[in-house]
Design brief:
Helix content is 59%, strand content 3%. By secondary structure, the protein is mainly alpha-helical. It has one domain. The strands form 2 sheets. It has a 3-stranded antiparallel sheet, with no helix packed on it. A two-stranded antiparallel ribbon has the order 4-5. Strand 1 and strand 2 form a beta hairpin. The protein is globular.
Length: 424
């Protein structure tokens, strides 16, 4: 709203110190970040006191983990603090006519509602299973359809392939100054970036066995299915990572900062040309949104770090993972997610491997066996030695140490993700 107010005043001829500040992505991003931190710090203290008064605490199952039972009764649904601290600065400093902003806001509200329903059932209905898994998946699929259709048909989500400033004669501009056609490719071509490859644009249409209109329809269906998978995987991956104090919060902050950098580079014609990547004309507001998200997460981490005063619950974790997935899709960098979100990936894989190996060995030997001492993976390092294929570490590590080491690994993956811009 402040962005639109300043733009209106500037167009009306107003001339005072700072009138042009809102034109700068960096300024809006920094202001959004700081505002989000302040809101999270102010809202966090009051929210914790309110939840404690209402006795809205986490139900803890005894899994034999060190310090686990001490967390019983810790307030949950803290994801509302993150969402509240994210939405307000976004409304203040982002361009609300930008389709990227609207999609990210819809993602936040939609998955926040879905996660909130899950936490509500767990806390108020005392049902540890929460919202039925089918409803969660259905909600994520609906979000994927919305994002997929927008990317396929919304002309506001335009990009230029390859070198951002070459071949101007091949560029046709609309009244809204959106780039519609580059070298014969429409702005809504279903393309993405392949890491570590020099000419690194991949067109999903290449996967279609058909040509013409049938091929176009088939390739868009494939693309939308990929989008649904990515959003569902990221959302559930963040949800599984949220098992230790500050773990999901800190890891997502690192991932969010990296995506913010990639969005800023993609939205800057000079940098996009230098790195020879897609120039996504309106991705600057994605950078503002992600910087704001990082601020909200840092403010929440003040209360969520070990020992946690509040947990984010599914209200936060489902939302954060979904935002990460949608952001990567909007800037056409979804193939970088296995690297950037390596923590989410291994956490999810550890659960899948553990579950299927246990079922397989139970059917074959009559008794289930384990690969990890416990899944998700972070609990493997927290568990004392038991009968499992992977025994190390023999001793359980303190929770704070595990979380910090996961942070370090996430930072290394973030650096590797950024340098893929140059390593090809």
């Amino acid at each position: 709203m402040l962005y639109h107010l300043f733009e209106y005043l500037r167009q009306q001829g107003a001339d005072f110190s700072g009138i042009g500040l809102m034109q700068y992505i960096s300024v809006r991003g920094i202001m959004g970040n700081i505002t989000a931190i302040i809101i999270a710090l102010l809202a966090g203290k009051k929210t914790i006191a309110f939840l404690q008064k209402k006795q809205i605490g986490e139900e803890i199952r005894n899994l034999g983990l060190e310090g686990q039972l001490a967390k019983k009764g810790t307030p949950t649904m803290g994801g509302l603090i993150i969402i509240f601290s994210l939405i307000i600065p976004t409304l203040l400093f982002c361009d609300l006519t930008n389709p990227n902003t609207l999609i990210l806001l819809f993602t936040t509200v939609w998955l926040g509602f879905l996660g909130c329903m899950d936490d509500y059932i767990k806390v108020f209905k005392h049902n540890k299973d929460g919202l039925n898994g089918r409803f969660k998946i259905a909600g994520q699929v609906i979000l994927g359809l919305v994002v997929g259709l927008a990317l396929c048909f919304n002309e506001g989500l335009a990009f230029r392939e390859g070198n951002a400033v070459k071949a101007p004669e091949a560029t046709v501009q609309t009244a809204s100054d959106s780039f519609v056609n580059i070298d014969g490719l429409e702005s809504n071509a279903i393309m993405t970036t392949i890491p570590f490859v020099k000419d690194n644009e991949f067109n999903y249409a290449w996967l279609s066995p058909f040509k013409g209109k049938a091929g176009d329809i088939f390739s868009k269906i494939i693309y939308i299915l990929v989008i649904i998978f990515i959003i569902t995987a990221c959302s559930n991956g963040a949800n599984l990572t949220d098992g230790m104090d500050g773990l999901a919060t800190g890891v997502t902050a690192i991932v969010g900062a990296t995506l913010g950098i990639l969005a800023y580079v993609s939205g800057h014609v000079g940098y996009a040309d230098y790195f020879n990547i897609m120039f996504i004309e309106k991705s600057g507001d994605i950078a503002v949104f992600m910087m704001t998200l990082v601020g909200a997460l840092l403010g929440f981490l003040w209360f969520n770090c070990y020992p946690a005063q509040i947990f984010m619950g599914d209200t936060g974790s489902l939302t954060l993972g979904g935002i990460v997935g949608v952001c990567a899709l909007l800037i056409r960098k979804e193939l970088l997610l296995p690297i950037l979100c390596g923590i989410f990936l291994v956490e999810s894989l550890s659960v899948i491997i553990q579950r299927y190996y246990f079922k397989y060995t139970k059917k074959k030997y009559g008794a289930g066996r384990r690969i990890f001492k416990m899944s998700p993976l972070h609990h493997h390092f927290q568990k004392e030695n038991i009968d499992a294929a992977i025994q190390k570490p023999l001793r359980a590590h303190p929770e704070a140490k595990i979380v910090m080491r996961f942070y370090i690994v996430s930072m290394m993956l973030a650096v590797l993700t950024i340098i893929t811009l140059k390593i090809r």
